[in-house]
Amino acid sequence: MDRMDTGSTSGHDSPSGLADRAQQACSSCRKQKRRCDKALPACGLCLRMGRACDYYDSSVPPTSDDFHFLRQRVLHLELKLEGRAGSSVASPDLARGPFASRSTPARDAAMGMLVGGGSPRAAPDFPSIFFLDGNAFKHKNITISKNHMPPPPEVAEALGSTADMQLVVDTYFTTIHSWLPIISKKRLPRHLQNPLADPGADLALLFLCMKLLAEPSSEHPESPKTPLYHMAKRFYFLVELHGINSLQLIQAAILLALYEVGNAIYPAAYLSVGHCVQLGYALGLHDRKSVQMLKKAGTWTETEERRRVWWAIIVLDRCVVSRHQSAITSPSPSPSPSPLAKNHKLILERTDM
User: Fold this and answer.
1) From CA 115, how far away is CA 52, in angstroms rounded?
2) Each residue's pLDDT tens digit, 36-46
3) pTM of the model
């Protein structure tokens, strides 16, 4: 009688036992690709191995909202550790912006240099062989490490919140970008939308220069040398002094030179355009077969963005040099071997990179 009672309550031997089985294999069996009997509360293999059996489906990837919430929680904990978590930061939100400053030794040092009261930290040494012997640099497969520097608090404050920066980006792309398309409309917004992005000083500098062009200052209409312009110039010097060489840096340099040319800030405009030419040579934008400081472009959009940056430098150089009647520093461009150059209609269709 006892044996019959025991058998009748067994979930595996009765038809009702089918309801006591999980709909999917447990996580351990899935990882090991083993057959799972899906028994509840634990499968037979996990019971024999003496391990925990978990039927939770962890294959669902986290959403952007999950990343955003996690980042805000980390930010809140950091502020608490610094003793600055008050009622104003109890629920952090997007008002801080992606370049929001947090007090760290690196940011404090950058802030001291920006206002002229500090000395630069030693950046990793750049491989001098890149300029001394390009062929040897190629054959030895030497890599150039990208230096990282957080933007100073003054710059983060000038850029404002994420909403403020998005407004600057929208204004820039509807005005400046329509006749000088050197910044990708597809690649740049990803830095604002990625909640886990760690933007560096070169990207902050690019946004600052976009703000300089997109938002004409009404506080100093009599002089184009506004406080924002001086901040951008000092910040550019700081980023370059730190050894940061990137596509964002030369894009920022072009926008700075464009601002100086448009507002007749000489001789700064003349020198800035010449500097863009030399920086383009150093990065290898003038010839994809030359020694490259940048990593190989992975997409057509990135390749096209670099090509347009070099063309913008050529146009600016011709514009400034023709007025000064001096020697042209950038070479005459050679015909592009790209098939896009042979199909004008295709170029127009793919203009919006």
Assistant:
1) 58
2) 998 888 898 88
3) 0.64
